[in-house]
Amino acid sequence: MRKLYVRHQDASNKGATVVRDDHNNACYLLVGKWGIRHDALSVYAIDGHLLAEIKQTSVGIFPKFDIFFNGQKVGSISKTCGFVHEFMYVKTLKWFITGNLRTGRHHVYNGGQSIMTVTPVNLNGALYNELSINRQSTEPVCICVAAILDHWFRGSSKSGLKKRTSIPGWRLSNGETSFNNIHEKKPNKNKLTE
């Protein structure tokens, strides 16, 4: 099992993303964008050879993506409706994806065999997805699947999660303040609005 690290896509790293292994060696290059129909993300070998692509074929609440490996369509995936735990299916490959878009943790299976595990990690102050992949031959396709899961994770975390704030609960005997009790920030109903 090899571990690969893909940086979360945000405004600071638009364009190309280098996929590295656990020894910090560059293994793949992830290039592209999505958002409108026919947009694509491509996975290249470091020597520049195109290995895999994921192309957006529809837009809307449940967008659909086709997955290509060595120029051949090998599967398709679309977002499903789920409240906490998501179950997705990659058609043709027969991969089941279980996980949680709120936490970003996912497991990919083919039957009872584990294909990949996706875990968000913080490395040197930046957010990455740690991909634990069982077979090196599936890595380019797994990177495509992880990229779309990351895209959906960021979308659900922006819209669906409430921001919570820490409120000091009590002062400890050594002078420190405990921030353990987390509360939702409530609007002040007595405050006059202008």
Automatic annotation (TrEMBL):
InterPro entries: Tubby-like_C (IPR025659). This is Uncharacterized protein.
